[in-house]
Amino acid sequence: MNTWRNASLAVTATAVLALTTACGQETGTETPNGQAVGAANPAQPGNGYGSDAGYGSETGGEAAAAKPAGQLAVWESEELGEVLADSAGLTLYRFDKDTAEPPKSNCEGDCAKTWPVVAAGGASAAPGVDPSLIGEVTRADGTKQLTIGGWPMYRYAKDTKAGDVKGQGVGGTWYAAAPDGKKAAPGAGGEAGGDEGTEPADLAGLSVRKDPKLGEIVVDKNGMTVYRFMKDSAWPMKTACTGDCLKKWPVVEPVEKNDTVGILKKGFVTFDRPDGIEQQTIDCWPIYTFAGDSKPGDTNGQGVGGTWYAVSPEGKPVGAPK
Asked: From the record, what ranges are coiled-coil (predicted)?
């Protein structure tokens, strides 16, 4: 059961354009050994808003007028921990394609029909909760939207009663909000954060972390270090890690280009591997994580076998012999 307590808290078809020469190859190019190299296609052509015409719902008509949240509340979810809700108990959500610093909403048009915005004003904080988390952002149409911790707040059209979280994870970009505006997750909002206070759940699909020994290295959406294999090649694009190798070195799955921070965009394409797995590349080099890394910040794969190295934002192997 859910226990309640008061608290405060588009990628379009034009994106699938000519990236086929980004790695010095044409679609269907053969490698020197005759093995077909996958076409360099943009990763995840979906627009990230969810299913059903890209927005996660089949709602029609115009977006409803924004309604305020009223007295904010928090309910306890066994799966998600503390989840932020409005005065009616409806779950509030945040969108990964928005920004909190500065606050900005990127959900407009049809998106706002499926994800009705929460109007600014009228939201009240419960005793013991910092009211400064409550704010507002002016949307493109001039209306004011509620923000929590800088993140614009939304409801989901398919949530019909208190405690519904049908919008959780839709499109890989929509998540229930925690009381501080971050993504709801067990243990979120407590003192135990990730390295340097960063919660992996709030990271982009690929971003950059400053490692005290290695300098700037790429990490995935969970904060796990990303690696390159020196036996791979980028021109032509080939992988030497197959079979059992992938158990230790899982591929980084395709990431949308606009879901990255600080990463080189040139050569940021999907590699269609001979084994049928789609793999993300940076500067056309296939990238991986390491099964021996157990938490964000680990770099246990660095230098393994003299062939595996963390990846720089430009796709280069950090610390590899010249």
From this structure: none
